[in-house]
Amino acid sequence: PHVCLPGSSLVNGYQPNPCLPRKLVRPMGCYSAGSYCGYNESIFNSNEKETMQFLNDRLACYLEKVRFLEQENADLEYKIQEWYEGQTPYVYTDLNCYYKMIEELQQQISCAKADNARLCLDVDNLKVASDDYAIKYEYEHGLCQSAEADVKSLRRILDDLTLCKADLETELEALTEELLCLRKNHEKEATPLRRQLGDHINVELDAAPSCDLNKVLDEIRYQYETLVDNNQHEVKDWYHTQMEELNKEVISSGEQLQGCQNEIIQLKHTVQALEIDLQTQHNLNTALENTLAETETHYSQQLSELQCLISDVEVQLAELQSDIEHQYGEYKVLLDAKCQLDCEISVYHRLLDVEDCRLPNYPGNPGCTTSISSAVGKQVWSEPIQSPVIPSDCTPSIPAAEPNPIQPCCNPCAPTSLLTPGCALVTQISTQIC
């Protein structure tokens, strides 16, 4: 009876043929990262035929595994070819025309957005201008109403002055008529008195000459007339002076009012211009803030996309590093397997040399003899053989930059605890042969 090799390195579903004699099996432990288990140092006995049978079975297992993998590979290639044949051919469609149309539409959209923004700005400016004209109209309407009120008040003042002038003229006429009446009454009263005095009294006095009453009356009349004329002139002068002063005050007040109104109009124009500039600056600030927000949103989206891309690249890099580490482990396993296979091949060569030594015509080396023991441990025969040479290239070609390089596996002088199972096997076989 035989037992099979551990199936950890085989394909799922594949069962190799029996390849290991059961009586040669001893407790064994799998070493890490290996695709098959390593065996203990004392797994083989001194029987070369069983060793040859074991190695032949191992070789048959490897060959059968190779044939099985080739068959599986051929089946997979056939399935892949059938799948590709069953797929419909992909027809490449030229999308450049659509890309051009999309670019043209995007340009049209950008132009429309710019025109819309310009129209919105024009509408805002027109609204501001209309508000300005409304304010101007209200201001001019207020000025017109105030001017009309001033004209009405001046007309009332002019009417009052006209009435005062008419009253004064009426008083002047009344005083003139009264003066004429007084003169007439005086003439009427003086005439009979003169007659009476002239007719009845004839007094001759040897005295100083008396004053002429007519002359006195004429003087009195002249004085009164002079006084009346002076009063009239004074009243006229006072009236004209008051009218001139009033006209001057009206003119100066009108000039001051006009200057103040002009200054107010200029200040209002300045305020309106400043308000228009302020509104324009507000609109420009709003447009710039919107542009800044759009730019920040666009760049934040690009930043998030780049961050996602960086995250994906980091994930891919981590996966690639894990794949590299996994492949490096498999590479070390394959190097160990290669080393063990080289050692087994060297064992094959030595065993073939041993078989050649058993031939009667083989020129042996008298320095070394091999003995075949029977089941009870007696020596049947012995003959000189050539000492086996341990191959010097039985070391895995691990790069020198690795931190834990694999130690040479075929040093027969190394301690048993430091050797790998394959190297221990080769060392034991070499020791038994020698």
TrEMBL record:
Task: Give one GO molecular function term.
Answer: structural molecule activity
Gene Ontology annotations of biological process type: epithelial cell differentiation; intermediate filament organization
Chain segments annotated as coiled-coil in the UniProt record: 52-122, 158-185, 243-277
GO cellular component terms listed in the entry, alphabetical order: intermediate filament
Query: Which SUPFAM superfamilies did the record assign?
Result: Intermediate filament protein, coiled coil region
Indicate the segments forming the IF rod domain, all copies. Answer: 48-359
Give UniProt keywords alphabetically: Coiled coil, Intermediate filament
| Name of the protein in its database record | Keratin, type I cuticular Ha6-like
The scientific name of the source species is Crocodylus porosus (Saltwater crocodile)
Q: Which gene encodes it?
A: LOC109320335
